[in-house]
Specification:
Elements lengths: L12 E6 L4 E5 L7 H8 L4 H20 L2 E2 L8 E3 L8 E3 L6 E2 L18 H4 L8 H16 L14 H11 L14 H10 L10 H5 L3
Antiparallel strand pairs: 1-2, 3-6, 4-5
Length: 213
């Protein structure tokens, strides 16, 4: 956080203290609530409402990756609005699963929140890099635009919800048929498809995502 806290879309770490029992992080106050709450309050956002939010998400990820940091737990609950204004800045928080990385370095641990985890983290080899953040951001943008998770959950499978979710992510069939997708632009759907590309080598980078705005 100390390497990232000067970015307008990343929460600022004001100070750090520790005693015999605890670490204390003093961060800027974000009074606007979670991105999750804004989505839930409206069911989903219009494309015009979602676009500036998605751009701020991409800017935060881009800063992380330039600084050599993978967040690894991107989700609507980990983005806070600075205030309650409609055009409030969005701030990325919660770096508990984050890790520093070097070019071409890969990790094999499974971290994050399952619904937003990239398929390579769930595969047999579990090797992943900064591309996992782009996948998670693609899931967030999808949810912003329609209010639900992008992959089909097969209710006919005799599995628990966790296993069903894992199977759906690995299978990767994205729902662009139900409402409100017929009214959403092809450019928005194309962006999401490229962010939810199953092959991490073909997935967009954060800078390429920014180029779409």
């Amino acid at each position: 956080m100390m390497t990232l806290s000067d970015h307008p879309n990343i929460v600022k770490l004001k100070a750090f203290r520790e005693d015999e029992d605890f670490f204390y992080f003093i961060m800027e106050l974000c009074e606007g609530g979670e991105l999750f709450d804004r989505i839930e309050a409206k069911d989903y956002l219009t494309e015009a409402e979602a676009a500036p939010v998605a751009k701020m998400i991409a800017k935060a990820i881009c800063m992380c990756h330039v600084a050599g940091v993978i967040h690894r737990d991107l989700k609507p609950e980990n983005f806070l609005f600075l205030n309650n204004q409609k055009d409030s800045p969005l701030k990325l928080i919660d770096f508990g699963f984050s890790v520093f990385f070097k070019p071409n370095q890969r990790f094999s641990d499974i971290v994050g929140t399952l619904s937003y985890v990239a398929p390579e983290m769930l595969s047999q080899w579990k090797r992943h890099g900064p591309e996992v953040d782009i996948w998670s951001a693609g899931v967030i943008i999808y949810i912003m635009l329609c209010g639900h998770f992008p992959f089909y959950l097969d209710s006919d499978l005799d599995y628990d919800k966790t296993t069903q979710t894992t199977c759906a992510i690995l299978k990767g069939d994205i729902d662009f048929e139900t409402q409100p997708w017929p009214q959403i632009s092809e450019s928005a759907k194309s962006l999401i498809r490229q962010m939810l590309e199953r092959d991490p080598k073909k997935r967009l980078t954060a800078q390429q995502v920014l180029g779409n705005y």
